[in-house]
Every structure is written in structure tokens, then in C-alpha cells.
Amino acid sequence: AVVNVTTQGMLAKNGALHRNRVLCHAFMLDVAGTSAEAYQKAVDGNLQLSEIGDGPARHTVYRRVTPGKESIGVIIGGMGFWDRIDLVIVLAPDLRQVLNIQILDQKDTPGLGARIEEPWFTDQFKGLQVDWEDPQGRRIAIGVASNPNARNRVDAITGATQTSMAVMHFLNEELDRIRAQLPPA
Question: CA-CA distances (angstroms) from residue 38 to 29, 118, 130, 151?
Fold first, then answer.
């Protein structure tokens, strides 16, 4: 109990540093250094924070206000194969293109589902078109699709199909909620 109480401040600082690092990578922000303060300064100088929705539909929204690099980032999450997955998705202001995603937290099997954090997977989302005309569960397709060259499709992780499908499910579900609460520019 003593260790728990005495480390709460340090755990909170480490949590804030991790979140700021992920936000800086997701928004591709320039960071002057590697300290917690440098990441905080990059976030504070480029992003505006707001909340949308209520209850379980509540989302933390970050708007990049850097001239010429405007974008909207939202922290979303859902159940993966073994545990919850939280990620930051950065979208163009009109919500039609994914600019980036970065995994904020996941606890899936190392070497399998945990590969969702690897650049080969997350980089597939850069420039991806959100197909708002497709059925609700297929705005973004992960894995097999009727058109393998679709502009809204990325490859699934071999050996981690359930994790890939879980990400696709909650990503599409949350995109619809976000769009309803935050109409495109």
C-alpha cells in the first residue's frame, strides 16, 4: 500500500508523457527534445482539446491548429481479442481521409495481436479514404474486402484475425458516432 501511494505521482507523470508522445506521433508534430516538458509543449502549442458526446459516446477530441496542417484527432477504443485497445485516429477536417493512427494502449498477445502497434500496420492507414457510402461496418475495411484495391482497405495481421476484426469493428462504430457529433467541415 505504501509503494502504491508513493508512486501515484510518478505513474501519473509517466501516463501523461506516454499520451503526449502518442499524440505527437499521431499528429506528426515537431518536438524540440525528448523530455516530458518538450512533448507537453508540442501538444500545448499545436493542439486544442475538447470533449464531444455524453456517457459512453463521450470522446476526447484534439484539433491541430497549425496553419496548413489542420486536422482532427480522436481517442477511440473498444474491446480487442483479449483486452481493451485504445488508439488515436487523426482525420482530415472533412472526416473523409485518415491521416494517421497510433495505438495508445493495448494488451494483446506479443508477436500476434500486439503487432497492431507496428509501423507496417499503422502506416497502412495513412491516406486511407473513409467510405461513408459503404455500410456502417465497412467505412474502413481491415482484411478481406470485395474489392482488394479499395481505398478504404488495409491488410489484417496474419495470425491475429480476431484482433484485426475487433479493431475494424470498433473503429467503424466510433467513426459513425464521431461523425454524428462532429459534422464534417
Answer: 11, 24, 33, 36
Supply the pLDDT for residue 184.
52
d(CA 152, CA 97): 9
- Cα–Cα distance list, 120 to 12, 134, 142 (Å): 30, 25, 14
Tens-place pLDDT, residues 39-59: 999 999 999 999 888 877 788
Q: Calculate what percentage of the chain has a pLDDT beyond 70.
A: 94
- For the chain, how far is it from start to end, CA to CA, in angstroms? 50
Q: How far apart are CA 82 and CA 106, in angstroms?
A: 9
CB atoms within 10 A of CB 176: 13
Rg (CA), the chain: 17
Q: Cβ(26)–Cβ(88) under 8 Å? A: yes
Q: Report, as an integer, the average pLDDT of 157-164.
A: 82
Whole-angstrom distance, CA of residue 20 vs CA of residue 3: 26
Q: Are 130 and 175 in contact (CB under 8 A)?
A: yes
CA-based torsion, 18, 110, 116, 33: positive or negative = positive
CA pair distance 136, 175, nearest whole angstrom: 9
Averaged pLDDT of the chain: 86
Specify the 3-state DSSP secondary structure of 102.
strand
